Amino acid sequence: MNSRTAVSVIVVILSVLLQPLSTWAVERAEVEETARLLATLLESGRAVIERNQALIDNPHKGDKGFTPHLFEQQLVQEFRGKTGIDLAALPAAPASIVIPPLAKELLPALVQASRDVVKDAQVVINQRGIGYKNFIPATWGSQASARFSTSSHVRLKQTALDARNPKNEPDEYEASVLNWLSARPRAEAFVSELTEEGRTLRVVMPIYYAKDCLTCHGEPKGDLDISGYPKEGHREGDLAGAITVTAPLGTR
Amino acid sequence: MGLSDRGAILIRSRWRNPLWPALLCLLLPGCGLLIDAVEQVWPVTGSKVDIICERERVQVGLAMEPFRPFVFPTIWTDEGARVTGLDVELIRAMTEELSRRCGRPVVPVLHLVRFRDLFRLLNEGHLDWFVSAVATNTPAPTRAGVAYSLPYFYGGGISGITTSSDVLHRVQANVQEQARHPAADRLAATSHALDGLTVAVQAETSAYYYAEANLSANRLLVCDSLPAAFEYADAQTEPRIDVILGAQPVLEYMVKRVRKDWSPLVRENGLPLFLTKADYGVVVAEDSYRLRWLVNDLLLKLEESGRLQAMRSRWLDEDYAFPRRASLEGLPFDVEKMAAHYIQGSCRLKPAP
To answer: Which residues in chain B have their CB less than 8 angstroms from residue A227's CB?
Structure first.
């Protein structure tokens, strides 16, 4: 065998060996991007609820007009502002690395779950004469995550080191990431890691306290907030928690 | 044995062979309607208790209007919409006990409806029972056809609250004046304490019936709910509200925790001024005899175990935030059967007779 033939054989062997590796890398990149987009969408929904909190808690108004349709409109707008992706045009958008096929499938499902929560909460939101109704970003997010996760193979979860809801307690991995994040300045980043011997990808996206959150989570520490939980004494920009997206790899 | 039970035996003995009614049904179009009509008179499937155990669900009514701390406003939790309060904990405890009696899990299906609709729905058979701080001794024609259980709350009754110290002193002076005539009719004497005042009450509650029957020298504002009365007063609408009458434990909770700008009507010695006293019970249909025995027995067991006392103390004496309790222990309700949403309504002046 001459040297030219030998090189050709090596190239062929390498390409055969590396093909699964490159496919796997592409899948990981797609799942990672999908997870990041899902977390961003959930965060967008939380932001929409937060922005409408005064309206939702207005005791003098019955029908608040905060309909599932209006919520969806604002959600789409918020998400577009954060990612540049127009969810309304998603079905027609070509699949790419910016919008992976998995994201095209899962983002609408999360929008639907998010919208359904607002729909079911109408009976609570539209009470007149009642101020605080506990329809806040965290409770909306818990329900939206739970509904989405039951209808998909991807799991969404809100978590925090000092979680008020026991269901949002971090597991060992989440706690280690949250501890790592809390020791660092605020950054628009996320942590992505393979777990379960590479079978699962976990994306953890941090959430930080905004000014409006501090009514319940700020100072004075230990005082009870309106819902009866002791305030944590946090400041604007502190790490509030994270959105965790857990997705299996190798399903395609 | 009640009429219903006798009827059931009568039906069973006549239709020993189950094929006959089935054959008859084939011949009769609209037979389901006929059976429904017959069941209203002779419940062929057994007593209400058997039916509840059989269907593994108990249909319980609860007022949409908040009667804190008995029923708090519905709120959103991580689990969805929930309602909480002393009455809700009572429903939970009674259902747990009922499950043990039935030998299978029984789930409470909560119907959150307007207070005034609870009586109608019970009479129409849509509810097995209801509970919402209902006084067991209110003389009112609209409350016919219902019966009350043993009390689960003692020492309630009708009292009032005001924002005006002048009104408070005036009422106290009137009470003192009436006390100088010990032989006088107490009911008349106490009601005279409010003479000349504008009084607000929630429609079709005990306070409403009390006011309608006994307060002739007053302007009466009839409100759809307690929050509506507060809103009317806050807006300083004419005629201004001098006193809101209602269930004393509810008003006491409100002035202590929610509306601290209001004060309770009290006697010179500082004790609440009760216009009448009442215990609160569970409401069942008058002809549901076995169910009433059962409800009484469930309550007695809860009382004897100390659980009822613990519940009362938990909701009336402790410091807590109800959203937290709603998250941890609140009950879901049948959203489909609830009115579109709670509207506190408004107040209107009752025309003088």
So the answer is: 321, 323-324, 327
Q: Quick check: helix, strand or coil at residue A84?
A: coil
In 3D space, the residue among B303, B292, B8, B293 whose CA is nearest the CA of residue B128 turns out to be B292
Beta carbons of A62 and B343 less than 8 angstroms apart: yes
Architecture of domain B156-278: 3-Layer(aba) Sandwich (3.40)
Q: Which residues of B touch A (CB under 8 A)?
A: 66, 73-81, 225, 227-228, 230-231, 320-327, 335, 338, 340-344
Whether B121 and B61 have beta carbons less than 8 Å apart is answered as: yes
DSSP category for residue B256: I
User: In terms of DSSP bridges, do strands B276-285 and B146-162 run parallel, antiparallel, or are they unpaired?
Assistant: antiparallel
pTM for this structure? 0.80
- Around Cβ A31, how many Cβ atoms within 10 Å? 25
Mean pLDDT within A224-251 = 89
> A159 pairs with which residues across the strands?
A242
Contact B219, B349 (CB under 8 A): yes
Look at the alpha carbons of A83, A88, A92, A95 in this order and tell me if their dihedral is positive or negative.
positive
Q: Measure in Å the smallest separation between the Cα of B178 and chain A Cα atoms.
A: 38
Q: From B45, B35, B55, B37, select the one nearest B7 (Cα to Cα).
A: B45
**pLDDT tens per residue, range B245-299:** 999 999 999 999 889 999 999 988 889 999 999 999 999 999 889 999 999 999 9
Residues of A in contact with B74 (CB under 8 A): 123-124, 127, 133
Instruction: For residue B342, give the DSSP letter.
Output: -
The three-state secondary structure class of B70 is coil
Q: What is the mean pLDDT of chain B?
A: 84
Section A161-167 average pLDDT? 87
Q: Which fold has domain B51-154+279-337?
A: D-Maltodextrin-Binding Protein; domain 2 (3.40.190)
How far from the centroid of its chain's Cα atoms is residue A142's Cα? 11
Question: What does the DSSP 8-state code read for residue B257?
Answer: I
| 3-state SS string for B28-49 | CCCHHHHHHHHHHHCCCCCCHH
Q: Please write the tens of the pLDDT for every residue from A178-207.
A: 999 988 888 778 899 998 888 899 999 999
The neighbour count for residue B250, using CB atoms within 10 Å, is: 22
Mean pLDDT value across residues B340-346 = 74
Domain ranges within chain B, ordered by starting residue: 3-41, 51-154+279-337, 156-278
Residue with tokens 């209801």: B130
Q: Would you say residue B12 has pLDDT above 50? A: no
